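Q: Give me a backbone?
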Amino acid sequence: QSLPQQKLLTWLSVLECVEVFAEMGTARVWGEMGRWTIIVLIQLAKAILRLLLLLWYKAGIQMSPPIMPLNREQQQPLHPQDMDNNSSGKNQTYVGRRSSRVVRSLQSTPSLQSRHWGSPQQREESQSRRAEEMNQPPTPLGLQETVAESLYVTRPLLHLLSLGVWGQRSWKPWLLSAVLDISSLTLLSDLKDLNKRERAELRRRTILLLYYLLRSPFYDRYSDLRLLADYVPGVGFVTRPLMDYLPAWQKIYFYNWG
C-alpha cells in the first residue's frame, strides 16, 4: 500500500472509532439538530474516503475495520537473552524417541514476557500464515463488482437522504437500505478467488442483515421478542436483557445504522 492509501485507511479507522462518541457528545451539547449534522458529516467523510480507496486506489472490497487490529502476542519481539539463545546455535526443540512429540528444550526457553505455549514450529507457521493474509493483494473488481461496492459505500448517505425526505417513521428508508444491501451482496456473490479477509467481510455483511429485524419500523410492528420470552422455554434469558437494551441502542444512529 502506498503512503496516501495508508493515510486514508488511518483516517477512516479514526472516524469509525469516534463516530458514536461524536454523535452522543454533539447531541448533549447542541441537541438533535447538531446530532444529525454531525451524523451527515461523518457519513459523508466516510463515503468520500471509501470511494477514493475503491475508485482511485483500486482497494477492492472495503474491510471493517479498515486496518486489521495488531495481534500483540504474535508481534512480540525477542528479548536480548532469547536472541542470544537463538544465535548460540542451541537446539530449540526436542523430539521424543517413543512419542515423537515435539517439545521446547530447556536451553531455549524464552523469557516470561515472550513465552508462548505452542511449539516454535506452530508459532512460525501461524506468523507466516498471518503475514501471507496481510500481504495478499485485493481481488480486482470488474464493473459489476465496482457498482456493487459503490452501492454498499453510498448506502448510508442514501438512507440519510431518505430519512430527511420521508421521515423516521416511514417504511421507505428501511426498504431502500435493505434493497441496497441485498443488491450489493447479490452482485458480489459472483466474484471468485476471494482471499480470506474478503470472504470474512462478505460473511460479516450477510450476518448484519439480521439487524433489519431489530430496526424501526420493522421491529416496532413485527419483531416482538416478548412473545418468544413468554412462550419459548429458555429464550427469555437472552431476549429479556435484549429488550431492555434495544430502546437505548436504537436511539444511537451509528449503533443502529452505521
